[in-house]
Write a structure and sequence with these properties.
alpha/beta, Nucleotidyltransferase, domain 5, Hexokinase, domain 1, six-stranded mixed beta sheet, five-stranded mixed beta sheet, 12 helices, 21% strand
Length: 323
């Protein structure tokens, strides 16, 4: 094991790349740095920039192996990020960095691996009762995109198998007539396919919801960033932003409940990503939980399932270490 250390750990999204080092199997994850993806032509340039700054503080030994979670499906040796400009070969990157091994996994697959080890202090529970310890756990999170994963238990072993998929790109459903009108407006804005990610549950989705609510109200949408929409909603300064964020939370409830039913996630539903953890009390008092339980005959089934908002600073790096 020691021959594979120091180990490079990474969590790459559509906006930022978080990098760290681990010196030994039981050593802490150290030297965590957050780098904007747009500032680098690709992962090699970002990693070399990172190493140039941290190696003088670690004795100068370059990493021997690496495990990186990335916001993309991993289908073969070539990766082209869905929500950023990076495109590269895993094997060529491994050789260029001089690593003995380099693994890339979907970022939410990596994040799922962190769930069993997250302390209670890093989780905020939103409804439900106690989780069932040997049942599947569901995971989703909105940020630059919408990540979806889960953990399935291996009976009798205490081990877990993480799921790797692209559930963020499922078709966005409408729960009622009001959401059907919102969805109709979204189809006008996003012709072709309104996915859960593009239509609602991401930064670009939040912008689309704001524009859809403006369209329905006959108002002119301003040029607002996702952060602007969120802030105007949280401070109550723009009614269309408030409506957009409430719709975001409700639709998050629909998609989370669908995932919980699909996986039988009596072990709990976990919400990560960059958006929901920043909403604080707004999310707690939003339509999320009521919508989560609004599944007709299976409302009681879902009412038992606890939902946790993840507030750990770098949980995906923990998952990369476990991977």
């Amino acid at each position: 094991m020691s021959a594979r250390y120091p180990r490079l750990l990474g969590d790459v999204g559509g906006t930022n790349a978080r990098l760290a080092l681990q010196q030994a199997p039981d050593a802490p994850i150290e030297h965590i740095v957050n780098l904007p993806c747009k500032d680098f032509a690709g992962p090699q340039q970002a990693i070399e920039h990172y190493l140039a700054h941290v190696l003088p503080h670690t004795g100068g030994m370059r990493p021997r192996s690496g495990v990186v979670g990335i916001a993309n499906p991993i289908l073969d040796d070539h990766i082209a990020l869905t929500n950023a400009h990076w495109a590269f070969s895993i094997s060529a990157l491994r050789d260029a960095l001089g690593l003995e091994s380099l693994r890339f996994l979907n970022d939410f697959t990596v994040l799922a691996l962190s769930l069993p080890g997250l302390p209670a202090s890093d989780l905020v529970q939103v409804g439900g009762t106690e989780p069932m310890p040997d049942k599947a756990k569901a995971l989703l999170g909105a940020g630059t995109g919408l990540g979806v994963s889960g953990l399935v238990p291996v009976p009798g072993t205490g081990q877990w198998v993480p799921l790797e998929g692209e559930g963020g790109h499922v078709t966005l459903p409408a729960f009622d007539e009001e959401e059907a009108r919102v969805l109709s407006a979204l189809r006008a804005l996003l012709p072709g396919h309104v996915s859960a990610e593009r239509g609602a549950l991401s930064g670009q989705g939040l912008q689309a919801l704001y524009q859809a609510h403006c369209r329905l109200a006959g108002a002119t949408a301003e040029s607002l960033s996702p952060a602007d929409v969120t802030q105007h909603a949280l401070d109550g300064s723009d009614a269309h932003c408030v409506a957009a964020l409430n719709t975001f939370c409700a639709m998050m409830g629909t998609v989370a409940a669908d995932l919980a039913l699909t996986l039988g996630a009596q072990g709990g539903v976990y919400i990560g990503g960059g958006i929901v953890p920043r909403l604080g009390d707004f999310f707690l008092h939003s339509p999320f939980r009521a919508r989560f339980e609004s599944k007709g005959r299976f409302g009681a089934y879902l009412a038992r399932i606890p939902v946790y908002v993840i507030h750990s600073a770098y949980p995906a790096l923990i998952g990369a270490s476990r991977a």
